[in-house]
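Reviewers asked in the last cycle whether our approach scales beyond single polypeptides. To address this, we selected a multi-component target totalling 308 residues and predicted its structure end to end. The input consisted of the following lines:
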Amino acid sequence: MSDDHSVAIDSTHHHGTVKSYILGFSLSLILTIVVFACVSQHVFSTRHLYMAVTALACAQLLVQLVFFLHLSTRSEARWNMMAFLFTVLVIVVITGGSLWIMYNLNYNMVH
Amino acid sequence: MTESMVHTRCPDVSFSKEVFGFWIYIMSDCILFATVFATYAVLFKHTFGGPSIGDLASLPFVFIETLLLLTSSFTYGLAMLARYKENKQQVLMWMAITFVLGASFIAMELTEFAHLIHEGHGFQGSAALSAFFTLVGTHGLHVFIGLLWMILVMVQVARHGISSKTTTKLACLGLFWHFLDVVWIFVFSIVYLMGAI
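The resulting structure, written as structure tokens, was:
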């Protein structure tokens, strides 16, 4: 097994290693257990619970993007990163915009 | 077989044109899911007097589904590592395990849907239910198609061994499979967990 200097990627061969997959899986597992436990045990107040679920979901997204999908800023992966960032922008505009519009429409129907 | 033979005979295609093209498709699929999520966000409270989605769902059940899909993503990663070692039998073994985990996920989801419909909470029941079935159903349909595709790739690898062609197919299926687990993170967080708060 070649040496990997970065924990997420085998730097010589541009793919994951057993260690990186196990690490990604373990982190995802922990984040999943924590978030389900927080909600089912109602560990925080309602508002903080929403924030916690959002934060833990985003954390697990990052873990899976890095360890499973090998997203990084390495030169081979750079265009993947660009496409991903653009997609995030499109999603923010479309989803955020839709929610804003629907909220606005609903407001005008009610008041 | 030495390490150097592995990489001259079958180069890594992870960042080839074909796989990048598939990545672009995955990005467009993310946008599709985002719009379905937006629809769910607008409609989930409109239950037409019925119970909320949170009331209808069982967290332990969803937790098991999540573990199945998450583990299947991990085992597919192990299949890819076996590919880099050019170990055809191991690739097929890990893919078979991934398939079983994914099929179990689908079985659980179908059970959940059947139960909801049987109890009178079908997709025609309310806007919230329509949105729920559309979102969770679209994800489930993707997983189902992924499973069919997985069988096809397993047959290809069994017949043609590990070549740059089959590696490209394995890489694309891998992107698809990991992406489905990523979308599931948001499904269980937004639909089930936030529904239960």
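Residues 1-8 of chain B have pLDDT under 50 and may be disordered. We regard this as preliminary and will revisit it once experimental data from Aim 1 are available.
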